[in-house]
Amino acid sequence: MKIALAALLLVASTLQAEEVDVSAASSLQDALRTIAATYERRTHDRVVFNFGASSTLAMQIRAGAPVDVFFSADEARLDSVEIMPGTRRTPLSNTLVVVANRPVRSPRELVKLQRIAIAEPSSVPAGIYARQWLQRLGLWQELLPRVIPTADVRAALAAVDGGNVDAAIVYRTDALLAKRARIAFEVTGPNAPRIAYAMAIVRGARHPAAARRFWEYLQSAEAAAVFRKFGFPGA
Questions:
Q1: In the chain, where are the structural domains located?
Q2: Contact 195, 119 (CB under 8 A)
Q3: Cys-Cys with 60: which of 65, 102, 174, 199 at CB 3.0–4.6 Å?
């Protein structure tokens, strides 16, 4: 893998620098910016990111937005867009946690809270995962009046970290960035959702060669080490 990676970077550095447009889930932004900084220094390609809710990014791609690589927080959003055959990968996973400003020891104790932020539960992956978990526990309908939908998982984290809600259900990787709120408990067991991040090169990419170089680098051991540093285990 190290030899292949070195060859990839050597070839890229001898070619004319290109731009690669990447749409990625907001929860990936810190890891991807770190990965891209190293990649850009070595290849001189320029990685341009558009971070947001995977549902919004998928909608933009279907509407014709110029995107080379799509990195979604779930497989369903990736499946909703046309991709280059043979480029679909599922390299990462994650875990949901409950982040709170007061002691919360179990899912049942969530009913004692007044406001719980989650990403939009009808379309955004983090919110869908949270809704599925609560439905499996039989708590969704009881908690629904307390749910505060947000644009994406980072907005849910900001709501609890800023004290605007009592708790939030977010990815563990995002919870690690909280300044005031703390992880109350991790969502585990048979009712926990399977969280899988999926990526691919978009069909009709404007920069197919540059897209493939960055897509391959995202699968390298070097990139995997950065993802682990930011709390993302392999799928």
A1: 2-93+196-229, 96-186
A2: no
A3: 65
Amino acid at residue number 57:
L
What is the Cα gyration radius of the chain? 19
Q: Which numeric CATH code is attached to 96-186? A: 3.40.190.10
Find the DSSP H helices in 15-124.
29-43, 54-62, 75-79
Say which CATH class 2-93+196-229 falls into. alpha beta
CA distance 70 to 24: 6
**pTM flag (> 0.85):** yes
* Beta carbons within 8 Å of 97's beta carbon, 6+ residues apart: 169, 170, 171, 172, 175, 183, 184, 185, 186, 187
> Pairing mode, if any, of strands 182-186 and 96-100?
antiparallel
d(CA 167, CA 29) in angstroms, rounded, equals 23
